[in-house]
Design a protein that fits this description.
The structure is a single chain. By secondary structure, the chain is α+β, with helices and mostly antiparallel strands. The protein has 18 helices and 20 strands. The strands form five sheets. Strands 1, 3, 5, 7, 8 and 10 form a six-stranded mixed sheet that branches. It has a six-stranded mixed sheet with strand order 14-15-13-18-19-20, sandwiched between helices. A hairpin with a 2-residue loop joins strand 7 and strand 8. The N and C termini lie far apart (about 105 Å). About 40% of the residues are buried.
C-alpha cells in the first residue's frame, strides 16, 4: 500500500514535462552531496560501539530479490552467497513489484551494553519482517509496516523501529524482508536508544511545525471565506487539505495520531490526498488567474477538471476504482492546472503584476521539489534529510506563496470596495451639496432638518432661519456674475463664522440661505441668534477690487412651537422672511401662523403648499 501518493507522484508528470524534470536534476544534486551511491567493494559488517551512537546501515546492506514472494528465512540464509550490493542510489531501491530481502552483518563491541534500535524511517512501507540471526539461528523476529496496527508495533513511533538486545563481542546477521506496492525507500539506521529518541523528537517537532502551519492556514482560509464570502479562500483551503493529508500520510503522523488503527485510511489516504490537491489546484488557479489574459475555454476546462477529480475521489472512496486507476488519473491531470494557468501567469508577470510572478515562483519550486522526490522514488537520487523532505518543503513553500496571492487578492477587493465607497460618497456629496459654496443644498438641508425636528422638544427647540440678501441683485448686475459668485462665497464664510459648529448652513439657490440651530433652551435664545446673524452683515465685504455692502432679511420659525415637520417650519420661515422684505427689509421676523398669508410664489416649501402668516417684527431699517 505504500505506493499511494509516492507512486502517484512518480507517475504524475506527462511526457511533455520529462525533459524539464531531467534538467532540474542538476538542482537535485545539490541536495545529494555527501550521499554515496553504489558501493564498489563488498560491504564490511557494521561495528556497533558506544562512541558512535548512530550508524547508517546502507553501506553494509546487500539485497536479494524474491519475485515469487515465497522465500523463507531458512532459504534466505542458505542463499546468503546470492545477495548482491544494491545498484541504485543511496538508501533507495526504487519502484519494485517483488519482495526484497536485505542482509546487514553486525558486530557488537565488547564494551557495548548491547542495547540498540533498528529504525527504517519511511513510514509508508507496507510490510517489514525483521530477523535477528546468529549462526543461522533466529534469535528474534518482528513484523513491522504501515498495515500493522499501531498498538502492536514493537516501538510506538511514526517510523518502523525495533529494539535490539545484543551480546557484547558477538556478531549477528540481520535480515529484513521488505514488501511494498510503492517505492522502497530505506533510510536504515542502528542507534542507541537515547540517540534514537533524540532523532525521533527532532523529526516529530519538524512535522508538528509543518502540520501546525498547514492547519493554521487551513483554519484561517476557512474563517476568511465565512467572513468575506470570497470563494477563492475555500478553494485555497481545498488545496491545503490535499497537501496536509499527504504530509500526514507520508511521514506517519496520520497513522500515529489522526487515524490510528484505521486500515481504510491507510489504504486510501495517499490517493485521496492526490485527488483533493488536484481539485484545489484546478479551482484555485482558475479563479486566481481569471481575467482577460485567460481564454474562457481554459476556465471551462479547469472547472471540468475539478469536477472529474471530485468524481474519481468519490469512486475511490467507495472502492469502485483502485489505486492503479487513480495513479493513471493523476498522471494525466497532475500538472494540468499549472500548465493551463501558465500563459496567464506569464502575461501578468510581463505586465509587472505580482500575482503572475508569485505563481511562477511557486510552480518553479513545485517542479524542482517534485523532480527531486520522483528521482528518489525511482532510485536515481540518494536519500538524505533534504531529498526525503523535498516535496513537503516545496508544498509548504507553495502554500505560503499562494497565501500571499490571497493577500493580494483581498487587498485588491478592499481597494475596489473603497473606490466604490468613494464614488458613492462623491455622488452623495454632489447630490447634497451646493457646488459654489460647498454648503448643503436643499436635499441636504431636508435630511438634517428631519433628524433635528424628530428630537425637538420644549427645552430642545429647533430654530430655522430663512435668509435673503438685501441688495445682491444690484451688485450682481453692476459688477457681473464673477463678483456675484465671489460675494456668495464670502457670505457663506461669514455665516460659518457666526454660528455654532453644530449648526447647519444651507444655500437653497440664488441669494437664499437657511441656518438651522437646534438644542436651544427657549424662544428668547432663538430670537437673539437671529439678531446676531443680522448684525453680522453690518460690515461690508472686501472682494477682488470691490467693497460691497449688503444686508439681510431673516424669517424664522421654531419646532415644535410653530410646527412638527420640516415642510411647515420652512413655509413659516419663508413667509416671515418675505413679509419682512415687504415691510422694509433688514429685519428679523418670526413666522408663528398668526399673521397674513405670504404672497411669495418662488418658494413652495417641500410639498408645494401655501405659506402661513407671520408676526413679531424686530430689527432696524
Amino acid at each position: 500500500m505504500s505506493k499511494k501518493f509516492t507512486l502517484l507522484l512518480g507517475l504524475c508528470l506527462p511526457a511533455a514535462s520529462r525533459l524539464m524534470v531531467r534538467c532540474m536534476l542538476v538542482v537535485s544534486a545539490i541536495f545529494c552531496l555527501g550521499a554515496p551511491t553504489v558501493a564498489l567493494s563488498a560491504p564490511a559488517p557494521i561495528f556497533l560501539e558506544e562512541s558512535t551512537p548512530l550508524v547508517q546501515a546502507w553501506p553494509s546492506v546487500k539485497v536479494l530479490s524474491d519475485p515469487e514472494k515465497k522465500l523463507s528465512i531458512d532459504a534466505v540464509m542458505d542463499a546468503r552467497a546470492e545477495f548482491k550490493t544494491p545498484d541504485m542510489a543511496y538508501g533507495t531501491l526504487g519502484l519494485r513489484k517483488d519482495a526484497v530481502w536485505l542482509h546487514i552483518p553486525v558486530s557488537v563491541s565488547s564494551q557495548s551494553n548491547g542495547l540498540w534500535v533498528l529504525d527504517i524511517d519511511y513510514p509508508v512501507l507496507n510490510r517489514l519482517d525483521v530477523f535477528v540471526t546468529r549462526s543461522k539461528d533466529v534469535i528474534e523476529r518482528a513484523t513491522l509496516g504501515s498495515l500493522q496496527p499501531y498498538d502492536q508495533r514493537p516501538i510506538r513511533s511514526r517510523s518502523h523501529s525495533f529494539g535490539l538486545k545484543l551480546k557484547a563481542g558477538t556478531t549477528y546477521d540481520l535480515y529484513l524482508r521488505v514488501e511494498s506496492k510503492g517505492a522502497m525507500i530505506l533510510p536504515i539506521t542502528l542507534s542507541k536508544p537515547a540517540e534514537f529518541h533524540a532523532k525521533a523528537l527532532d523529526e516529530q517537532m519538524l512535522q508538528g511545525l509543518l502540520t501546525g502551519l498547514a492547519l493554521c492556514l487551513l483554519v484561517y482560509s476557512l474563517a476568511q471565506w465565512v467572513t468575506l464570502r470570497e470563494h477563492l479562500y475555500v478553494k485555497y483551503a481545498i488545496l491545503i487539505l490535499g497537501s496536509l493529508l499527504f504530509s500526514l500520510f507520508q511521514f506517519g503522523i496520520g497513522s500515529q495520531y489522526v487515524w490510528r488503527g484505521n486500515s481504510w485510511m491507510e489504504l486510501h489516504a495517499g490517493g485521496l490526498a492526490a485527488l483533493i490537491a488536484a481539485t484545489g489546484s484546478f479551482l484555485f488557479i482558475e479563479q486566481a488567474l481569471a481575467g482577460p489574459d485567460v481564454h474562457p475555454w481554459i476556465s471551462r476546462i479547469m472547472k471540468a477538471g475539478a469536477a472529474f477529480t471530485v468524481f474519481f475521489a468519490l469512486c475511490f472512496s467507495l472502492d469502485l476504482i483502485d489505486l492503479h486507476i487513480v495513479t493513471a488519473i493523476i498522471s494525466a491531470l497532475g500538472l494540468a492546472p499549472a500548465l493551463l494557468g501558465l500563459p496567464g501567469a506569464i502575461s501578468r508577470a510581463r505586465r509587472g503584476e505580482s500575482v503572475g510572478m508569485y505563481f511562477l515562483l511557486a510552480w518553479a519550486a513545485y517542479f524542482v521539489t517534485t523532480a527531486i522526490m520522483i528521482e528518489v522514488i525511482k532510485g536515481r537520487v540518494g536519500v538524505n534529510f533534504w531529498t526525503l523532505h523535498s516535496f513537503q518543503f516545496g508544498a509548504t513553500f507553495d502554500m505560503l506563496v499562494f497565501m500571499r496571492v490571497l493577500g493580494l487578492r483581498t487587498k485588491a477587493l478592499q481597494a475596489a470596495v473603497q473606490h466604490a465607497r468613494s464614488e458613492r460618497d462623491s455622488l452623495h456629496s454632489l447630490a447634497h451639496t451646493d457646488a459654489l459654496t460647498g454648503l448643503p443644498n436643499r436635499r441636504g438641508l431636508n435630511s438634517s432638518m428631519a433628524e433635528a425636528i424628530k428630537n425637538a422638544g420644549p427645552e430642545r427647540i429647533v430654530a430655522v432661519y430663512m435668509l435673503d440678501l438685501d441688495g445682491f441683485k444690484q451688485i450682481n448686475d453692476q459688477y457681473g456674475h464673477d463678483v456675484g459668485d465671489e460675494l456668495l462665497i464670502a457670505v457663506a464664510a461669514r455665516l460659518r463664522a457666526n454660528v455654532r459648529n453644530r449648526d447647519v448652513i444651507s444655500r437653497l439657490g440664488g441669494d437664499e440661505f437657511v441656518v438651522m440651530s437646534h438644542a436651544l433652551h427657549n424662544v428668547q435664545q432663538a430670537r437673539d441668534r437671529g439678531e446676531q446673524l443680522l448684525k453680522a452683515f453690518n460690515d461690508p465685504f472686501a472682494l477682488s477690487g470691490h467693497t460691497c455692502r449688503i444686508g439681510l432679511t431673516i424669517g424664522y420659525a421654531l419646532a415644535p412651537l410653530d410646527g412638527n415637520d420640516a415642510t411647515s417650519i420652512l413655509k413659516r420661515a419663508d413667509a416671515a422672511m418675505y413679509a419682512g422684505k415687504h415691510e422694509g427689509k433688514h429685519c428679523v421676523r418670526r413666522g408663528d401662523g398668526s399673521g397674513p398669508m405670504s404672497s411669495h410664489t418662488g418658494w413652495q416649501g417641500l410639498d408645494g403648499g401655501d405659506a402661513p402668516g407671520v408676526s413679531e417684527k424686530t430689527g432696524s431699517a
